[in-house]
Design goal:
The chain has helices at about 30-35, 50-65, 90-100, 110-115, 155-165; strands spanning about 20, 25-30, 40-45, 70-75, 105, 125-130, 135-140. The chain is α/β, with parallel strands linked by helices. The strands form two sheets. It has a five-stranded mixed sheet.
Length: about 170
């Protein structure tokens, strides 16, 4: 299996507003949900072995920002569940409950959000600043295979930079 790379960052790209159902069918309006916070969109799914390898780290990262009211995370699954039955909303919900996801999980069934952001693979992460401008696009960290070998936590570093008033690298 070939490993796909995320496309290059287009710094300053405005985030799009959207309304998507979550895994329970409740609508999530991006403007209401994110408000004036830092927005982290996490494109994940239930069938991907790369997502499985880092799920615990994603959960830990979200928990590390629990007390930061100005940081909001949203997971999105844009996969066609006719081709990937494990990514059907009921299956996503079961996995989220099993792993106790500390973030909402939206379903982009028509893949409109994924196409707008040119999402290439899972997992793929987007960070938008307080002005809803893209400041980070990429991976969670530098070693998806082995958590003990991680040297750089790029996503976390991007969020910390924003919280410190700096631009992420």
């Amino acid at each position: 299996m070939a490993l796909l790379e995320s496309r290059p960052l287009v710094t300053g790209q405005k985030g799009v507003e959207f309304v998507l159902p979550d895994i329970s069918g409740i609508k999530i309006d991006s403007e209401s949900y994110f408000g004036d916070s830092i927005r982290i969109l996490m494109f994940i799914c239930a069938h991907c072995p790369y997502v499985h390898a880092i799920e615990d780290r994603i959960i830990d990262l979200v928990h590390s920002f629990d007390k930061q009211q100005s940081v909001r995370f949203l997971a999105v699954c844009s996969n066609d569940f006719n081709h990937y039955p494990e990514d059907a909303p009921t299956e996503l919900k079961a996995r989220a409950e099993l792993l106790k996801y500390p973030f909402p999980y939206a379903v982009d069934e028509e893949q409109e959000l994924a196409k707008t952001l040119d999402v290439q693979c899972t997992p793929e992460f987007f960070v938008f600043d307080y002005q809803n401008e893209l400041v980070y696009h990429g991976r969670l960290d530098d070693n998806w295979k082995d958590a003990s070998a991680v040297c750089k936590q790029e996503l976390k570093e991007a969020i910390v930079a924003l919280l410190s008033g700096e631009q992420p690298k």
